[in-house]
């Protein structure tokens, strides 16, 4: 079984797309062994619980507040330990809004088997790296700087949103679009693209 661990911070509509794809056999041989969130209030946790998927909450903010001697690298090592408990072959960041330190990434690069960490980012390669990418693309379109946007699924490296691109897709922006129109169109294309990226990686194993 191609076990995946999914990391989220919010609504979890992309997590839901993965769950649905497993259940309708678009993703055969894939199983979500756990969903981990940095926010206890993330609705995606309820989506996982509804499908009897193991969930964990591990907040960076709380981890640092509980012991002032700790730092983000310590968090990264602890997060990696938690994830290893679930024996994933792939780690999927689906709306995970914490920058992962090198200490986390090295845990999955140095040990065999190497475990890929992938991220879904709602912008095209080289555009709008970081948070709030959809809003920034919308504003850029309004200024006439771009005529469309898109998304990518990429390997996670220390540099934000700069890892090897696995899949990318364009997303149209229309003159009459509100920001929520664009967000809705973006999420719809994300759901398909993320499932296709996981399918690609699971069949390459
Ligand atoms: N080392 C990496 N970590 C992460 C990557 C990556 O490519 N390399 N991708 C991000 C996802 N992401 C954009 O795709 C992203 C998410 C969040 C942030 C950010 O500034 N986070 C702040 C906290 C924001 C908050 O509390 O809401 C932070 O971590 O301090 C940047 C990029 C996931 N991680
Ligand atoms: N920088 C990372 C980033 O912005 N990720 C974005 O968070 C949203 C999560 O939606 P969801 O919780 O409904 O899946 C998605 O649009 C995803 O691309």
Automatic annotation (TrEMBL):
InterPro entries: Formyl_transf_N, Formyl_transf_N_sf, GART, GART_AS. The keyword S-adenosyl-L-methionine does not apply. One of its GO terms (biological process) is 'de novo' IMP biosynthetic process. Keywords: Purine biosynthesis, Transferase. Pathway: Purine metabolism; IMP biosynthesis via de novo pathway; N(2)-formyl-N(1)-(5-phospho-D-ribosyl)glycinamide from N(1)-(5-phospho-D-ribosyl)glycinamide (10-formyl THF route): step 1/1. It holds the Pfam family Formyl_trans_N. It comes from the Eukaryota. Residues 3-198 form the Formyl transferase N-terminal domain. SUPFAM superfamilies: Formyltransferase. One of its GO terms (molecular function) is phosphoribosylglycinamide formyltransferase activity. Its EC number is 2.1.2.2. The keyword Zinc does not apply. Gene3D superfamilies: Formyl transferase, N-terminal domain. It catalyses: N(1)-(5-phospho-beta-D-ribosyl)glycinamide + (6R)-10-formyltetrahydrofolate = N(2)-formyl-N(1)-(5-phospho-beta-D-ribosyl)glycinamide + (6S)-5,6,7,8-tetrahydrofolate + H(+). GO terms for cellular component: cytoplasm. Coiled coil: none annotated. HAMAP family: PurN. Belongs to the GART family. This is Phosphoribosylglycinamide formyltransferase. The gene is purN.
């Amino acid at each position: 079984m191609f076990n995946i661990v999914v990391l989220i911070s919010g609504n979890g509509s992309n997590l839901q797309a993965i769950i649905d794809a497993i259940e309708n056999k678009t993703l055969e041989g894939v199983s979500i062994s756990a969903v981990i969130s940095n926010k206890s209030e993330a609705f995606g946790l309820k989506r996982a619980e509804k499908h009897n998927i193991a969930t964990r909450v591990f907040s960076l903010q709380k981890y640092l507040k509980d012991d002032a001697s700790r730092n983000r690298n310590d968090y990264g090592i602890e997060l990696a330990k938690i994830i290893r408990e679930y024996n994933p072959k792939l780690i999927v960041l689906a709306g995970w809004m914490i920058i992962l330190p090198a200490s986390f990434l090295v845990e999955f690069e140095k040990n065999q088997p190497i475990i890929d960490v992938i991220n879904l980012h709602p912008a095209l390669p080289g555009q709008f790296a970081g948070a709030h990418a959809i809003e920034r693309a919308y504003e850029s379109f309004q200024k006439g700087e771009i005529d469309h946007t898109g998304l990518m699924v990429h390997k996670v490296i220390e540099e934000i949103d700069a890892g090897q691109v696995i899949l990318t897709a364009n997303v149209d922006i229309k003159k009459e679009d509100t920001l929520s129109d664009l967000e809705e169109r973006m999420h719809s294309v994300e759901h398909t693209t993320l499932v296709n990226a996981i399918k690609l990686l699971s069949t390459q194993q």
